[in-house]
Structure formats: structure tokens, C-alpha cells
Amino acid sequence: MRQRLGLNKNLAIMSGTTFGNVFFQNMWLPVLALYFRALGANDWELGISFTLMSIARTFFALFGGALADRYGRKRLLVIPGFVMVPFYGLAAVTGDWVVLLAALVVAYALSALTGPAYTAVVAESSEKERIARSYSLTEFSGLMGLIAGPLVGAALLGVTGIPVLLALHGVATAVMTALRGWGLTETAHQVRENTVPKLKSALHSNVRWYIIMGA
Known about the structure:
Order of helices and strands: HHHHHHHHHH
Radius of gyration: 18 Å
Strand content: under 5%
Largest sheet: none
Number of strands: 0
Distance between the termini: 45 Å
Helix content: over 70%
């Protein structure tokens, strides 16, 4: 019973933190291209920037799955989350679009590392017949953040500016990660000590095309 309560708590924490992360990110993400322009990026540089960020959001998930199997899901949800925070801080204070790009690429790569652990925690915290319902709950939380974030960001943008919204996202990332570190129960039944990323087998044709089309 205690373990089941812990797993149910996992779903509540994942849903709440998913809303928070998506909400604060989408306060500034819809106008990121305009911010790059304001810092001096031209059309070509803007396209390259978003391509690099897209690659970072997909490619590094290959490593995240192997690391989550080796070190546990909770560590992969917590450690990269805290490491992201100073990069969002750097993105908030810089006046150089190249530095902004570098900071966001690193932050997105770290976020990609957490993706497989996120998926595993939701599935492993659910009874088999309720896995789809659990994913629906976390996806609904993300959707609510996706809707509410731009609305609130639009209201705040004229008052605060994009750097402040980036800084708020950094603070929110720290808070959401701390909540996961405090409240999540590890779900991996057995940590595989000898697990290493096998890129040759992971990069099969479907994954390669997914990365290419995403970029």
C-alpha cells in the first residue's frame, strides 16, 4: 500500500511539474524568434539557430534512455533539471544572440536527457490497465500549460520584457525540479550497471528520419 501511494504521488507530481514547466517556457517561447532578431540575428542565422535547438531536443534523448536505465529515472529527472537553471539565467542576462543560442541549445539538450526517464516514470507508476489514462493526465497538464503560458506571457511581455520571462522560467525550473527530487519515488526495479548508449542500434532508420524531419 505504501509503495502504491508513492507511485500515485509520482503521477500527481509529474502532472503538476509538467504544467509548471510548459507554462513558464511558453510565456516566452512563442516570441523567441523576435528576440533573436532584436539581438541582431538575420534570417539565415535565425533558421540555423532553431535547427540547432531542434536537434538538441531530439538527439540527446538517445543518451537519456541509457542513462536512466543505468542510474535510475529519478536522477535523470533531477540532475539535468538543476544543471539547466544557470543556462536559463545566462539566456536572460546576455545581450548577444550567439550566447543566447548556446545557452538554449545546452538547456534543450539537458531537457532531452530527461525525456525517456519522464516517460518511464509515468508508465512505471501506473497499473497496466491505467497507463493510457496516466499519459492522458500528464499530456492534459502539458496542454493546459501550452494554452495558459502564451496568454500570461502576452499580458506580461509589455511590462517585463523577454529577459525577465526567461529568468522566471529558470526559477520555475529550479522549483519544479526540487519538487521532483523531494517527492518522486524511484520506479526502476533494477538499475543496470553495465548499460551504455548503443548509438548504432538506437539510430535506426525511423529515428534518423524523425531527427531529420524535426530539424
